[in-house]
Design goal:
The protein is an alpha+beta fold. The chain has a 4-stranded antiparallel beta sheet. The protein starts with a helix and ends with a helix.
Length: 343
């Protein structure tokens, strides 16, 4: 596998497209192509799966590079930090596996491509004692400046990365081969999280839709099934008014359906709401619910300031309905886990 296919986050898509496929057009057209959308979906679905990312997503190096950048762009446009962290972790895990078969020169090349000033080392220290073999050394094959080490290690929570547990000599930190591979994987995760901003200002509606869908899937998988008891009061008021008055304003309807779509409300729930208004038959409500949920996932509910201005609700704590809902879900899960641990 070529270098760019193994480590696509080390290349710029526009530069690689010019070199590989002689493409000089807008980056938006490249990323919004059907090929890019399909590859991004495949990469993100793999990243969210229990198995994680396979060694290769695309059929060749170009598809591997495109799949990564399209997936990263979808994450950027989704605005989901949870989705970004999940992708970055999956990519780091994939790199960790690839590094097991990487040469020492290849490992150093990747480290330097990520901005680490690594140098080879042959330092050995006495480490273990065996009655049969005597003192066994620990080989420290890589070293890097203290400042480079701290940039990465300061964000890692495991005690092994603390400076007091490291080998420091002459302003450089020395690591054995396995430790450096793990350190490098952590650097990859941080690097991906840092470069996502390159797609913030690029207009990518199709990838934005994909990103939002993936973010919703992630919350669904992590936080469990839809719970109507956790719906915030502003949304409950719309539901109550629609049931009693048999009508709602366009703004209220938008607020309601975008909220339900983004909290993974099942089609049956939305169908029942539509039918309860008395405006449509059961059959029509079923068809409308399916279409509405599919379309509404592309959008987000009004923020609190806009909802107040449109007189959708009378008061608000400023967090927004989605934030209120997911926080309530998480609190419920925390209480459930706590009760299980005490029994």
């Amino acid at each position: 596998m070529l270098w760019q296919a193994k480590y696509p986050f080390t290349v710029k898509l526009s530069e690689y497209a010019r070199k590989e496929i002689d493409y000089y057009g807008p980056i938006e057209e490249l990323l919004e192509s059907e090929e890019a959308i399909n590859l991004a979906k495949k990469r993100l679905e793999a990243a969210l799966s229990r198995e994680g990312l396979p060694e290769q997503i695309g059929r060749d190096t170009w598809e591997e590079v495109l799949s990564f950048h399209a997936a990263l762009a979808a994450v950027a446009k989704s605005g989901s930090l949870r989705l970004l962290r999940k992708l970055a972790e999956a990519e780091a895990d994939r790199v960790r596996e690839l590094l097991e078969d990487e040469s020492r020169a290849g490992i150093m090349t990747l480290a330097r491509a990520l901005g680490l000033r690594v140098e080879p080392s042959n330092l050995a220290i006495n480490w273990l004692y065996s009655k049969r073999r005597g003192i066994l050394p620990r080989l420290l094959q890589y070293s890097l400046p203290l400042s480079d080490y701290l940039v990465v290690a300061s964000r890692l929570v495991e005690p092994r990365w603390r400076l007091v547990n490291s080998f420091l000599l002459g302003g450089r930190v020395y690591l054995d081969a396995q430790s450096f591979k793990n350190f490098l994987a952590a650097k990859v995760r941080q690097h991906i999280e840092s470069i996502v901003g390159i797609y913030d200002e690029v207009d990518l509606p199709k990838l934005a839709e994909l990103g939002r869908k993936m973010a919703s899937k992630l919350d669904w998988g992590v936080l469990g099934e839809f719970d109507p008891e956790k719906i915030p009061s502003c949304i409950k008021e719309i539901i109550d008014r629609s049931a009693s008055e048999k009508s709602m304003t366009p703004e209220e309807f938008y607020m309601l359906v975008t909220f339900l779509a983004n909290v993974n409300a099942p089609q049956e729930y939305v169908e029942e709401l539509l039918y309860s208004t008395g405006l449509v038959s059961r059959t029509t409500a079923s068809v409308l619910a399916e279409v509405i949920l599919e379309r509404a996932r592309r959008y987000r509910p009004y923020n609190c300031e806009t909802a107040l201005a449109k007189k959708i609700c009378g008061e608000c704590d400023g967090r927004g309905p989605l934030s209120i809902y997911w926080r309530a879900i998480r609190r419920g899960l925390d209480r459930r886990e706590g009760s299980q641990q005490t029994t």
